[in-house]
Amino acid sequence: MPEIKLPKGYRILVTREKKQASGLVRKIEANGGVPLAVPLLEFVLPDSLEVIQETLMRLDEFNWLIFTSQNGVDFFFSQYEAGARESKLPKIAVIGNQTKKALLSRGLKPDFVPDKFVAEEFARQFVPHLKVSDQVLIAKGNLARPVIAEAIRTAGTACEELTVYQTKLPDKSGELLAVLLKQHQIDAVTFTSSSTVHHFMKIVKVNSLQNDVRNIMIVCIGPIAKHTAEQYGLTVHVCPDIYTADAMIDQLSVYLQSVRNS
User: What three-state secondary structure class fits 63?
Assistant: First the structure.
């Protein structure tokens, strides 16, 4: 069966962090669309590294280390490799293909990966592997939801959360996005996290552009981003069952064809 393409010249906003947007940009181009890369996320180290360094020096206290994103892996190991390599790593659990790939690229294999890449499903599948005496460390961003930590603690196991990176809105992105919206240059927007939704809507509200987003297709990578978008009153047109960037564009292509044929 031939691959379904996007309408020629279809303009899709890519909101991912600049370094992580290339795969989605290539997918859109391969499907016949026009990517508009306006990063709504920038990832930086926390203002203070003292807590990170102190925690890394006692890694041997933990039985499990959890990564919920590629960023968590990257920022954790940037600090680990800078000064705590003598500390033995515990067993590692990850959410998501990109998180797993980031770990494998460092020669490490995860000991646990859930079937579905959302925090609730991770917690449901992971908690039965724990003992009450275990110690768990979650390496996360400052905006990460507390779902996993709460589930672990509810089960009676000790859990620490370590913020290894912060998420912020890039300085020039707001102005660029506002111009594109005012000029109606966007046909669809892709949201790959709740943070991209929050930052998008912040720009929309600051510039009073609510009416300019009404006719834009909203595409979300998974149920959490979808829920966040709907809380802002956005109608989500596409949310694939497989939570990947490729699946977003494939599903959008199918959706647009069905609209054209109806």
Answer: coil
Residues 6+ apart with CB under 8 A from 7: 32, 33, 256, 260
Q: Which residues contact 230 (CB under 8 A, 6 or more apart)?
A: 236
pTM exceeds 0.90 for this model:
no
44's tokens: 């930086």
- Averaged in consecutive runs of 10 residues, what is the pLDDT profile of the chain (262 residues)? 82 94 95 97 94 93 96 95 80 94 96 89 95 97 93 97 96 96 98 96 97 96 96 98 93 94 78
Which domains, and CATH codes, for the chain?
11-41+170-261 (3.40.50.10090), 44-168 (3.40.50.10090)
The backbone torsions φ and ψ at residue 207, rounded to the nearest 5 degrees and listed phi first, read -100, 10
The CA R_g of the chain, rounded to the nearest whole Å, is 20
Asked whether 86 and 58 are in contact (CB, 8 A), the reply is no
